[in-house]
Design goal:
heterodimer, A: alpha/beta, Spore Coat Polysaccharide Biosynthesis Protein SpsA, Chain A, Thrombin, subunit H, 6-stranded antiparallel beta barrel, 23 helices, 18 strands, about 15% strand, B: about 750 residues, Jelly Rolls, Chitobiase, domain 2, 38 strands, globular
Chain lengths: ~725, ~750
């Protein structure tokens, strides 16, 4: 009883503390002091932010940083809403309200973001009991739709390599490409389906896993997995996308959470990709800066985990069967069954863990078109969730879980805000609409500190996972297409259909993405607005300050759009299996032809792929002296020597050779998969080596250079191609 | 013989000529000759300047309805450029649009004196327009710069005079004529208020105050000379000339128009039976004075005090339709329709059409280049910095103006911004928006003026320049929008009082103020009434809810103590910043206050974070900067001081004092002249009859207004940025610390396995 009273007292105390904090925060943030006082405050707080950013000060410093920047942002919005939304004329007012709504959305996302990321939880994976008899049984399921056999085969082999007692693990291929519906189709797809099914069954048989299919392709991936559930009996289910190749220690890193905490329904791990996405590839960002998905998997999921809200991302996750059964399996009302299922289970009181240790390696889309297919599916699915399973109305979620899920879902409304930010300068410069009612003094006292606070906060929280302005480029690129997808969902929330992201595409030539056309128009209009604005700047001195600010804004948009355009110039991609940069000292075991003596030559493996790798020798090989029986001996004893053939010599690097793996038995194939994809430590090292933050100024400058260079390259290519067409036509 | 006859005729002619002036001075008692310098009718004391090839200047002078004008004499002292072309330089004088005379401007004799007599036919009983129009050139050809600096003529507005010759009319005894009777438009107006009893009751004081306001409101800016006097029933001597006398009032006591106030019983002994019988309710009657029918006596009476009050209020209401009869009984007055603020005072958060402030559609051209919009802003309107007054102009301008044509907008005489008139084909804007920060406006009267600078697109010597297209209009349906504001003011502040009457009056009300007389001399009573009447300059309406008394016990937060200093009155001012006769820093001429130069760290800390004082600076070591603390009395000076009310946190005490040997009314009259009144500042002022004036700020100040926490903080922190920072930063640090602790607690509960990360 005493304990209960104490707990109640603590709750009331906590509530009072929070109330006092927020009340004083709001009150002070809303006080409209004179501009000079506001300027003093802004400068002082920004200096504080820089100071904390530089010296860190641990957890308290992080919270203080967020508190100070939140105060600046809140002051800005209270100023905006109280003093700048003035009716001047109908169209200006509509423009002003629209711009404010876009800004407000940005502000909301800022507060969601700082809330989610206030204290990221770097959870260590929990150890398994020493007695393996206590380990739960696991079903590994690999849902597949129409992925190529070469891709799925790797995943199957890797699943077979997973280190877990064989009596407690079973692997299933859930083939939706071989459903009765497809096999009995009345068109040319029928033969392809039959051929595919035969291949898949053969592979499953070879590796000793179970092939499952179903009658009809209903409810997409969720339906596929649910159909399989009745065949499964394991306590846990490991979900792997067809292109998500697990490392051998995937269960070792994840199962412990389920053993130690019965309320855990999910252990999610990050998606680690071995190839760049099309934007990284086309802007040559790959391996120079953190991959785009790092922000989510190396920062946001950690924050979500702190708030007991890390959610299921569709793959590379282990789920508790008992929990799944409670909600009727995987939920497929929306096309993002993963977050929908997690939301429902969180609502039932189950908890989730996020272990930030890459234990799968996957593939990203190769073209911008495929990339957009994937992103539009995510956008549509999350917006569907927002409408159909709004966290605000689910009864049992904790307040912080509601905020986290809202943050995840509302993020996908960004296309509206981006489009508004793109067109707003033109509304003022072309039509004179007064959409931002502030003078230069107010701009420098409120708006500029606000923008600086946003920039500094983003850099403070995410500089290790994303450089400055990368988000802006990605969002700008997606916004023109996602906006239609999101509008379609808003119009009809049950409308979207699941679209599988194409993988393992090859591009024979460089080409301009077919999605580039809208960017030409918007770049043309933005450039025109900027040019017109510069003319106005010199001809309307009475409005110079506002025009100057707006022109700067238009030029910033132009830079983003140029970078986007650069990313829409698709570079060729001939290699099916991406090369993974590594550094492993190994031995090449060769047999000397003339005396049959075996010889081990030290080599350094520079990169590997499922097909082969690049080796660097200390000296040139006398190729004619060695037999064809060449084996690559890896220091890791769990990997057997791999038979290779020397495929090519890189003439520019005298001692570099390309090798091709040879395998004739399933065991040899398994061994190669284990070598290429089996070591999670390799993925950790790669992640760690990807682009350390060069600082805010340098990263900004880098992005400016990248944007201008690639944007202009695209334009050059487009113009030259157009001229060629014209010449051919008239020749 | 013929020679003798010729000599006789010549002698008679000479005699008659010599006697003529003396005969002319034999005037009727109603004859009036008044002379003023021309500057009297101008807003500023400056010469009339006429520049360029064409220019004109107009002044307006009034002729009252109470007089019959005979003629107006105009004596002009003119100086002109000595480079003018003789045959092309001329000054024309027009009266009400008619040519009254013309003068050839002589470049050789460039100082000219001229005299004109404006005949009766051109004059009217109203404001008369006197226009000086000049045509002046420096070359005989058409090729000249019309704005050449050598083209000038000046009329000396001090030495040039205007004399009105008129006969006073017999008073028109109709109440409806009260307005024109009171404002005789001939300089200051004198009035006597007659008291029938020795005792001075609060009711009498109230009645007199209301009557004086009624008079002052009718006079507008015309100075009032008020006289309060006790009268006793007078027995007329028996003679033919006095047998028709109505009022038992000594005619020697009636030097001016007079008002007799009191109940029927109080004033009955002065009135004839015919009038007495008429007083059956709230009574207003106007009659000619017995000895001087050119002057009136106004009877305001009633059966009881309430009826007299009703009658004085009816008198004070300007727009009340008084009848065309000599007397009337007021049955009822409905005050329901009266607003709490005057029509010209703006209310925060409201939009007004220009026409609300008497602005009519204005056309700018070559002859008229400016127009003005006048309105009042509440004294305690406190705004945040960003608050903007939006002016939405309905505006049009002509085509083919040069691109440097503009309409300059001035606020209270200072340039604020310009509207460029750049469209070659002219334009009409129905919603041309201009924003002016509210803080640019001042409490009280504000003048927003629009001055058009219209330039022809054609220029150059020998070019034909037509100016018919130089035209622009601002329409009366243009609007003025005021933002919502708070109400707060720092008191005491005589500058604020000078501009707005605040805090003694707020809007059209004085219900938070009491006017206390320290003695009951006629001098003090007249002074109090006159002072109160002056407050109608700000209210533009009679202040009915005032409280005037001799009582010491007052509940109103604001008080005006008015009277003469005596031994008894000293004890009243123990809390005042100046206690006469004791050690004081008495206001006198000093250029800047001596301040402490060095300050300790503690003093710096206090000043930076807690005090409103600015950084100490060294004053120049000259005698005028010395500050002397001394014992002193008032002497021949008068004192107006203001300080926080000892008994009320929100109140202010005003004290208007003179020595008992001095005429307080004389001092007050000096104070109310624009020259002194406009100098009011600080919280203590002293002046004398010679208009020597000094002011000082001494003692505490406080902020009066809404008890709005937010507004108080906004005001405070805007004035003290360092305090704002000193509060914000620790509060944010504390908030962060609390959040940090809460997160630690949450983490321990939610993630016991990961609790090692908690600080």
């Amino acid at each position: 009883m005493e304990c209960h009273n104490r707990s109640e007292g603590l709750k009331i105390g906590t509530f009072l503390c929070l109330f006092l904090i927020f009340a004083s925060f709001f009150f002070l943030a809303g006080l409209r002091v004179d501009l000079i006082t506001q300027a003093h405050l802004s400068v002082l707080l920004l200096i504080f932010l820089l100071f904390i950013k530089h010296f860190k000060f641990g957890y308290y410093g992080r919270i203080l940083f967020i508190t100070l920047s939140s105060f600046i942002v809140l002051r800005y919005f209270l100023w905006r809403v109280n003093y700048t939304l003035v009716y001047q004329d109908f169209f200006s007012f509509i423009g002003a309200v629209t711009l404010f709504a876009a800004e407000l959305y940005g502000g909301l996302m800022f507060f969601f973001s700082v809330f989610v990321n206030i204290r990221p939880l770097e959870r260590k994976s929990l150890p398994l009991p020493k007695n393996s008899a206590l380990w739960p049984s696991v079903d590994v399921i690999i849902p597949s739709y129409d992925e190529p056999i070469e891709l799925v085969k790797i995943t199957i082999a890797a699943a077979k390599n997973i280190a877990y007692p064989s009596d407690k693990i079973a692997v299933y291929l859930l083939d939706d490409g071989g459903t009765d519906q497809k096999l009995n189709a009345q068109d040319e797809r029928r033969a392809a389906a039959h051929q595919r099914q035969a291949q898949f069954k053969s592979v499953c048989s070879t590796f000793g896993i179970t092939y499952l299919s179903r009658e009809r392709n209903e409810n997409a991936k969720a339906g596929n997995m649910n159909a399989a559930l009745k065949h499964l009996s394991g306590e846990l289910i490991l979900v792997l996308d067809a292109d998500h190749v697990p490392t051998v220690d995937i269960l070792e890193k994840t199962v412990g959470s389920f053993v130690q905490d019965e309320k855990v329904f999910l252990v999610q791990t990050p998606h680690f990709f071995i190839n760049p996405d099309p934007i990284e590839k086309n802007l040559s960002l790959s391996n120079r800066m953190p991959s785009e998905n790092f922000m989510f998997y190396k920062a946001i999921q950690l924050g979500l985990d702190f708030w007991q809200s890390s959610f299921f991302c569709g793959s590379a996750a282990l789920l508790r069967r008992k929990a799944l059964d409670e909600v009727g399996g995987f939920n497929g009302v929306t096309i993002t069954e993963d977050s929908e299922t997690a939301l429902k289970l969180h609502n039932l009181g189950w908890t989730s863990h996020y272990v930030m240790h890459p234990v799968i390696s996957g593939l990203q889309p190769e073209t911008f078109t495929s990339f957009m297919v994937q992103r539009m599916r995510w956008a549509q699915g999350m917006v569907q969730n927002f409408i159909l399973h709004n966290p605000l109305v689910l009864p049992n979620l904790k307040i912080w879980q509601r905020i986290c899920y809202l943050s995840n879902m509302t993020f996908w409304f960004f296309p509206f805000a981006r489009v508004v930010f793109l067109i707003s300068p033109g509304l003022y410069l072309f039509f004179g609409l007064k959409i931002y009612n502030a003078n230069a003094d107010e701009f420098f006292s409120y708006t500029l500190p606000y923008l600086a606070a946003l920039l500094l906060t983003n850099h403070f929280l995410f500089s290790h996972v994303r450089w400055a302005f990368v988000s802006e480029i990605y969002e700008t690129m997606q916004s023109l297409f996602s906006i239609r997808a999101v509008l379609a969902v808003l119009k009809n929330p049950h409308h979207p259909e699941f679209s599988v992201t194409p993988k393992m595409e090859t591009l024979e030539h460089d080409f301009i993405s077919p999605l580039a056309a809208p960017f030409y128009w918007i770049i043309f209009i933005t450039a025109l607005a900027a040019g017109f604005g510069i003319w106005q700047f010199f001809n309307y001195p009475e409005e110079r300050s506002l025009i100057g600010i707006t022109v700067f804004w238009a030029l910033f948009n132009l830079l983003l759009l140029l970078a986007a355009l650069g990313a829409l110039y698709e570079h060729r991609q001939r290699r099916v299996n991406p090369r993974i940069p590594i550094h492993i000292d190994a031995m090449l075991r060769v047999t000397i032809a003339h005396n049959s003596h075996a010889l081990e030559i030290p080599v350094t493996i520079k990169d590997i792929s499922m097909g082969g790798g690049s080796l660097v020798f200390e000296y040139a090989l006398a190729l004619e002296t060695i037999t064809k029986d060449i084996f690559l001996v890896i220091p890791d004893k769990s990997i057997l020597p791999i038979k290779v053939t020397l495929a090519n010599t890189f003439k520019d690097k005298q001692h570099s050779y390309g090798v091709k793996y040879e395998h004739s038995t399933p065991q040899e194939y398994l061994n190669i998969v284990r070598f290429v994809h089996g070591d999670s430590g390799k993925w950790v090292r790669i992640q760690q080596n990807l682009g350390t933050d060069p600082g805010l100024i340098k990263s900004m400058s880098f992005m400016v250079n990248i944007g201008v260079y690639h944007g202009l390259s695209h334009i050059k290519r487009a113009l030259s191609s157009t001229f060629k067409k014209i010449i051919i036509r008239y020749a | 013989m013929p020679k003798i006859i010729f000599i006789i005729i010549y002698f008679v002619y000479f005699l008659l000529s010599a006697l003529q002036p003396a005969l002319a001075k034999e005037e009727s008692p109603g004859a009036l000759h008044k002379t003023w310098p021309l500057g009297h009718f101008m807003t500023n004391d400056e010469p009339i300047q006429l520049k360029n090839t064409n220019d004109s200047y107009t002044i307006n002078f009034p002729i009252a309805d109470r007089v019959e004008p005979e003629s107006v004499e105009l004596k002009l002292v003119i100086s002109n450029s000595n480079l003018l072309k003789t045959n092309r330089a001329q000054l024309v004088v027009l009266i009400n649009g008619f040519v009254a005379g013309q003068i050839k401007l002589d470049p050789i004799n460039s100082e000219t004196q001229a005299k004109f007599t404006l005949a009766r036919e051109y004059l009217k009983n109203d404001y008369n327009q006197l226009t000086f129009r000049v045509a002046q050139h420096y070359t005989d050809s058409q090729c000249e710069d019309s704005s050449a600096p050598e083209l000038w003529t000046r009329v000396n507005s001090i030495k040039s005079t205007l004399t009105i010759n008129a006969d006073k009319k017999t008073v028109d005894t109709r109440l409806s004529q009260l307005g024109s009777l009171i404002n005789d438009r001939l300089g200051s107006y004198s009035l006597s208020i007659l008291r029938s009893e020795d005792t001075v009751s609060d009711d009498y004081l109230y009645w007199g105050a209301i009557v004086t306001q009624g008079v002052k409101l009718r006079l507008k800016y015309v100075p009032l000379s008020l006289n309060e006097q006790r009268i006793k029933p007078y027995q007329w001597p028996q003679s033919n000339s006095t047998q028709n006398a109505q009022f038992a009032i000594d005619p020697e006591q009636l030097k001016h128009d007079a008002v007799l106030i009191g109940t029927k019983q109080q004033i009955g002994s002065f009135l004839p039976d015919s009038i007495l019988q008429s007083i059956q309710g709230a009574y207003l009657g106007i009659f000619r004075q017995d000895k001087a029918p050119q002057r009136f006596i106004l009877i305001i009476s009633g059966i009881d005090n309430q009826e007299v009050t009703k009658a004085v209020q009816a008198f004070a209401l300007l727009n009340l339709g008084l009848p065309d009869t000599a007397w009337t009984i007021i049955k009822d007055i409905d005050f329901g329709a009266m607003a709490s603020t005057s029509r010209q005072t703006v209310v925060p958060g409201s939009t007004y059409q220009f026409s609300r402030f008497g602005f009519t559609d204005s056309v700018f051209d070559r002859t008229n280049s400016s127009t003005n919009l006048a309105f009042y802003i509440p004294a305690d309107m406190y705004s945040t910095e960003e608050a903007q007054v939006s002016i939405n102009l309905d505006l049009a301008y002509g085509a083919a103006l040069r691109r440097d044509s503009v309409i300059n907008i001035k606020l209270n005489g200072l340039f604020n911004q310009a509207i460029p008139l750049k469209e070659a084909s002219g334009a009409h804007y129905s919603n041309y928006q201009i924003n002016i920060p509210l803080r640019s406006f001042q409490p009280g009267l504000n003048n927003l003026s629009f001055e058009a600078v219209l330039t022809p697109s054609e220029y150059g010597e020998c070019s034909f320049i037509q100016t018919g297209n130089l035209i622009a209009s601002i329409y009366q349906n243009s609007t003025l929008t005021f933002p919502k504001t708070g109400s707060a003011a720092t008191l005491p502040d005589l500058k604020l009082f000078e501009r707005t009457g605040f805090p003694l009056v707020k809007g059209a009300s004085a219900d938070q103020s009491a006017f206390r007389l320290l003695d009951t001399s006629s001098d003090t009573i007249a002074s109090a009434w006159h002072f109160i009447a002056h407050l109608t300059t700000f209210t533009h309406a009679p202040i009915f809810d005032l409280h005037i008394t001799q009582d010491k016990n007052l509940s109103q937060p604001n008080q005006l103590l008015i009277g003469k200093l005596s031994e008894k009155t000293h004890e009243i001012f123990t809390e005042a910043p100046i206690e006469l006769g004791k050690l004081n820093q008495f206001p006198y001429v000093n250029q800047e206050l001596q301040r402490q130069i060095e300050e300790s760290f503690g003093e710096w800390l206090y000043r930076t974070f807690l005090s409103e004082n600015s950084k100490p600076v060294a004053a120049e070591i000259i005698p005028n900067n010395a500050l002397i603390t001394q014992t002193s009395g008032l002497g021949e000076k008068y004192l107006l001081m203001s300080y926080p009310a000892p008994a009320n946190d929100e109140g202010v005490v005003f004290a208007l004092l003179s020595n008992k040997e001095q005429s307080l009314y004389t001092g007050l009259s000096e104070l109310l002249t624009p020259k002194l009144w406009n100098q009011l500042q600080g919280n203590i002022v002293v002046w004398d009859k010679q208009q020597n004036f000094n002011s000082l700020q001494q003692g505490d100040t406080f902020t009066s207004g809404e008890k709005n926490t937010k507004l108080t903080y906004i005001m405070h922190f805007s004035r003290h940025p360092w305090q704002w920072l000193a509060i914000i930063v620790p509060l944010l640090m504390l908030s962060a610390w609390l959040i940090h602790k809460l997160l630690n607690r949450y983490q321990k509960n939610a993630h016991p396995q990961a609790s090692g990360h908690v600080d």
